[in-house]
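From: lab user (bench 3)
To: helpdesk
Subject: output format question, protein + MU-OXO-diiron

Hello, I'm new to running complex predictions and I'm not sure whether the block I got back is the full result or only part of it. Here's what I submitted:
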Amino acid sequence: KESTMRKLVKGNVSWVGYMHWELEMFHGDEYSILNGSSQNAFLIEEEKTILVDTVWLPHRDEFIENLKAEGVLDKIDAIIVNHGEQDHSGSLPALLKEIPDTPLYCTAACVKSLEGQCGQQGWNFNVVKTGDSLDIGNGKQLIFVEMKMLHWPDSMATYMTGDNILFSMDAFGQHFAVEEMFNDLADQALLDKEAMKYFANILNPFAPFVTKKLEEIAKLNLPIDIIAPSHGVVWRDNPGQIVEKYAVWADAYQENQITVAYDTMWEGTTKLAHAIADEIHKQAPDTVVKVYNIAKSDKNEIMTEVFKSKAIVVGSPTCVNDVLTSVAGWLSFLKTLKFKNKKAAAFGCYGWSGESVKILQTKLAEAGFEVVEGNVRSCWNPDEEDFAKIPDMVAELVK
Ligand code: FEO
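Helpdesk reply: Thanks, we reran it on our side. This is the complete output you should expect:
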């Protein structure tokens, strides 16, 4: 059968993953996929044949059939399991029914993770730590680097000597389907955006670990010709560019941008949102301003804009002594992302009791934002007196 799967990465290393053009949501419904994604698995065919990771369970049959069609399934000497999350390990149970007893190389936390998810199946685990290596013949080795909390306790990267390839697992990845596979062949604007969205929405909570790990990897002094993450493009053209970006993104990243995010019931809070955006532009014409209705816009896209912002302005009317449920859920997500070094202000309309602004300020402070004193509480519809409060609030955000 003609090969349907293999893409040459370099030398004797091939991509054997799954290009997932149709994927719409990831992590349940927590992460929106707008440009497809991929689950990247790799096959190394030196004197030993090594499989690096697998694909998500729904694609296991195709994955295994492809390995059979390539004539390599029975030749696999070992499987590197860089991470126990299902998008990479979901095919393992079916795969190991075909090739039982094949040695698996993974971290101790990954054994717990896999046995927790798949049950104790007597798999041939070989626990590895940072610096451990596996000889794969032809003078080449795989060296393992634990990547704890990037982004799970069990995460690991694998470095291949000789070809200088870092199989980095989720780090440096993007949910972005690129049939051409390599970063230099991808749409650069989309690649930049998807890499940042991935960092902002998945890795930002672990930013301090990113900083430490990048320093640790730099000290290993390993030449890196290719970074092959488990989603999205393989970085072959100046792979250092994504490492440099991660160093910047992990360091309380901000651009000269302010994002206004709100929801509304009868458009009063919308009027305030637009007036606030106008005022930001008036006071700071060089500052990028973006406005999103939280209930109508993709939450992951908004969070990417929050990641880029130096300040955010969040609005909700009061509804039965609280903020709207759309805003409450959004604030809960915001808190988990652990953004640093950003200001925030609150606004909203009310008709009866009017607690929303106070609640927004409290929640924004709990999410790690520096909440400014200025705010706009508007009884019923915003009037001149309410609009007059906006310049002072904005002045605190832009200074
Ligand atoms: Fe792509 Fe953490 O799995």
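A quick orientation on your result: The longest helix spans residues 188-203. Let us know if anything else is unclear.
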